[in-house]
Amino acid sequence: MDKNDLKKVSDYIFEIPKSYRSDMRVPGRIYISEKMLDDVLKDQSLEQVVNVATFPGITKYSLAMPDIHSGYGFPIGGVCATDIESNGIISPGGIGFDINCGVRLLTSGLFFSEIKDDIEKIANQMQRDVPSGLGRGVTQKLSLAEIDNVLKSGTKWAIGKGFGFENDLEFIEENGCLKNADIKNVSELAKKRGLDQVGTLGSGNHFLEVQRVEKIFDEEIAQEFGLFENEITFLIHTGSRGLGHQIASDYVRFMVSVMPKYNIIVPDRELSCAPFNSEEGQQYFNAMAAAANFAWANRQMITHKVRLAVKRILGKKYKELKIVYDVAHNMAKVEEYDGKKYCVQRKGATRAFPPGSLEIPEKYRETGQPVLIPGTMGTASYVLAGLASGKETFYSSCHGAGRRMSRGQAKRSVLGSDLKRELEEKGIVVRAQSNIGLSEEAPLAYKNIDDVIDVVEKARLSKKIARLVPIAVIKG
Questions:
Q1: Cβ atoms of 461 and 419 closer than 8 Å
Q2: CA 294 to chain centre
Q3: CATH (residue range 3-404+446-475)
Q4: Whole-angstrom Cα distance, residue 12 to residue 459?
Q5: Can you say how many angstroms the Cα of residue 415 is from the centroid of all Cα atoms in its chain?
Q6: Where in the chain are the domains?
Q7: CB–CB of 164/304 below 8 Å?
Q8: 285-329 pLDDT, tens digit each
Q9: Which of 206, 245, 304, 399 is catalytic?
Q10: H or E element in which residue 241 lies
Q11: φ/ψ (deg, to 5) at 441
């Protein structure tokens, strides 16, 4: 595909016409600037947008956010909505392997000038207290019976065990628990992979950051979110770990065997799927919900560990870390638009509900949902707010900067030790399990987060509220 195949709708919207390929049921719509298109055209992500446009029951568009890049079957940064009343499908590839990978933002009520001399000690303590790295788990494993409780109850399980407060639930998407979770649909292998992983960060692009609010764009909304210039915040980015990955693997294979039963043909086996309302579609949807609950419990446990770590270092200076919001960016949800119900699948895309939505905390009904967009290591993250004009994307926004370089390319392009030194010269404390992990997540491997956010705001998908910059990074 090249630029000539795209129709320019506006400075920030390009369209792949339905006529591009005979099996497309809807056009593809990409929210991106012209200068960002060159990177996207280098990978297979736009062809993946076309492939998603062939899904039975897909409505309006196969959508792509400005951080789009190639994924497993379904592009990362992709969104689609299927009409569940008209044989619309659900696809494990449309959610991804890290089910309910998401972001949680905490405010400290403290300013940089008050604790700047404690930052390195806080980073050291968090690294000691929160297990991170590929495959690394906690010392004390849960039993299979306890894992079942985690899968059923999510954050409520964690709070019931003393890992947080009841008022935390209000500021977590779905109050931290999808009620349709069904443990019967989760394999024993998946459960076993989760036994030692509640409260662990993992590897890849997952991280903990201590941040400083560098700039406020809307003071009134920022104040409602509890954000003030030069305030210290904490960002947690992780998901359902090996348990979620196993559920995705199980159901990708299962759906391949199911498609002939429903006469479904897709252009890529990685997009295997089943009708949402079918027995098989519901089995996956309920297993996905169980993994989502695991991820929320995981972020809650990490929150508890971060609170204890910061309190241990700050002593009497400590103020309780409050949750601004916790939102997923790998999820399928049933949502209603204009009186019809759809299965909205977001993979590397953040839900961004507008003012007035009953799906968000009452505190944010006038401002719109906080939309949390982590940047790359060493660059800024953003807090946005959902807008009514985002309805065209089923109220979806980007989820980060988006890769422009594979992990292998990144490792060949930068030494982790050099990157660590560069970041520390900028005043950023870096704690990581390996220099290889740092290389893979180097800023040059990603798009420019400011360009991505610029598109999101100018396309009126979400509104800029605050820009946060890292002062300490903890990675697996």
A1: no
A2: 15
A3: 3.90.1860.10
A4: 6
A5: 27
A6: 3-404+446-475
A7: yes
A8: 999 999 999 999 999 999 999 999 999 999 999 999 999 999 999
A9: 399
A10: helix 241-258
A11: -110, 20
Please give the single-letter amino acid code of residue 67.
Answer: D
- pLDDT tens by residue, 414-463: 888 888 898 899 999 999 877 887 888 888 888 899 999 999 999 999 99
Taking the C-alpha atoms of residue 269 and residue 203, their distance in angstroms, rounded to an integer, is 27
Torsion (CA) 241, 213, 323, 288 in degrees, nearest 10 = -30
What is the pLDDT at residue 90?
A: 98
Q: Are strands 89-90 and 76-83 parallel, antiparallel or unpaired?
A: unpaired
Handedness of CA 254, 259, 265, 266 (dihedral sign): negative
> Three-class SS of residue 306?
helix
**Per-residue b or e along 324-345, where b marks 16 or more CB atoms closer than 10 Å to that residue's CB:** bbbbbbbbbbebeeeeeebbbb
Residues linked to residue 372 through DSSP beta bridges, in sequence order: 383
The answer to whether the pTM exceeds 0.85 is: yes
Terminal-residue alpha carbon distance, the chain: 36
Residue 245 designated active-site = no
The radius of gyration of the chain's CA atoms, rounded to the nearest angstrom, is 21
